[in-house]
């Protein structure tokens, strides 16, 4: 008996969806930063054993769209809810005990996962929190974890396996994701932008891989960082190019870990006004599939 299904991780911004997925996979596929809305795409990642295949989905955090890009991000969430075999609703010990409307009438099993239990002082606090959530979702299994410390992930995987439907694998066992290498490389560059720059800069940028050349002992990558305004371009580059040099070094080191090879990375910055509301560009960047 083989089990296979789509397990979609949904939650508010900054609850640790990407951290949880990386921890479950034992490999960094999703970028992470302390800023909200770091995740923009729906990323599918495949976990395959001899008895099951889980197609995990990491999605943007639940949001109220303010421009076209965010509308696309919300559509990724809606899509994940539609094709889910199991919904993981991820919350944290810091979040209010509130149930989104889409969980109330969910037609597939829901697992409530409480993250960041390492922040609690004692077991009594956890027991009280679980009790409060149980009142809201009486039929849902509740698993308390710490993605950071990898605590109770085995328990979560067992619960998922129990709820998975019987089905042949959807994807080849050698595949790890539906996204290609260029996508992950661009995401690692964007992650460093989120970590190194402040205020609106990370939200105004998009990264496009222009060229990806694999040689015997070196991969050459040329990428463009698009921003909304000239002033943002100046901030990305920094005085005498110091900021973009630091960005390039940190991104290159992350990419080398991922590709397991030496990397030459060249970054340039261009202004693309209003790209977040430009349908043509959003299609090119993969936010609009239809």
Structure description:
It is a single chain. This protein is of the alpha/beta class. The protein has helices at 17-25, 68-82, 101-104, 123-136, 153-163, 181-196, 230-237, 242-259, 279-284, and strands at 3-11, 43-48, 52-58, 86-92, 110-115, 142-144, 206-214, 219-227, 263-271. It has a six-stranded mixed beta sheet, sandwiched between helices. It has a three-stranded mixed beta sheet with strand order 7-8-9. A hairpin with a 3-residue loop joins strand 2 (43-48) and strand 3. The longest helix has 18 residues, at 242-259.
Envelope shape: globular
CATH fold category name of the largest domain:
Rossmann fold
What is the count of β-strands?
9
Sheet with most strands: 6 strands, mixed
Task: Provide a short characterization of the protein structure.
The protein is 35% helix and 22% strand. By secondary structure, the chain is of the alpha/beta class. The protein folds into 2 domains: 3-163, P-loop containing nucleotide triphosphate hydrolases (Rossmann fold); 181-284, 2-Layer Sandwich (GMP Synthetase, Chain A, domain 3).
Brief descriptors of the model:
9 helices, 290 residues, Rossmann fold, 2 domains, three-stranded mixed β-sheet, six-stranded mixed β-sheet, GMP Synthetase, Chain A, domain 3, 9 strands, single chain, alpha/beta
